[in-house]
Amino acid sequence: MFKSGVGFLALFGLGWWLLGSSAFAGVVRPVLVVVGCVVAVGLMFAARRFLPASAGGPFPAGRRRRFNQINGLQWLLIVAVALVCGQAGTPVLIPPLVAVIVGLHFLPLAVVFGQPRLRVPAALLVASGAAGTIVWLADGPDETVRLVVGLASALSLWAMAAWTVAGAASAAERGVEKAESDGA
User: Fold this and answer.
1) What is the rounded average pLDDT for all residues in the chain?
2) Were both Cys, which of 28, 38, 62, 159 would link to 24 (CB 3.0–4.6 Å)?
3) Is the CB of residue 142 less than 8 Å from the CB of residue 24?
């Protein structure tokens, strides 16, 4: 599954990063775009390099069905939020509410994948959405809402991707050390 989800985390992180960087103008924005692209590509290359070939293989049918149900519900909620916020004249609330939805979708995925650590990006994305909503409620500018939600969400997803790769690299290193000590 795109190397244990790292590819998805990297690319969706890039999407959030682009949203956050849209708060900037001038030369800063293109620099931030390049930085975001480098981070996303770097995470994907690291996953390819350090994760085992078996990582992210096909799901068993039951797990695939549950994954599709969770993601389908997530996308339906995102579309509903976009439509309601658009009709209500508050499109600035779309990113914070989407961050909350995406964060909450990690909770059942933690169970489906048997990965309790997915609760970490769940909490961070919900906090990101809450922070953006608070900025909006405090009459902060739309750019600040996008900045807070976008950058915090991107960093949360990228941190999860890096954690996944680092865990695999660490496990591989432990395997090499054990093999070396067994051979000595």
Assistant:
1) 90
2) 28
3) no
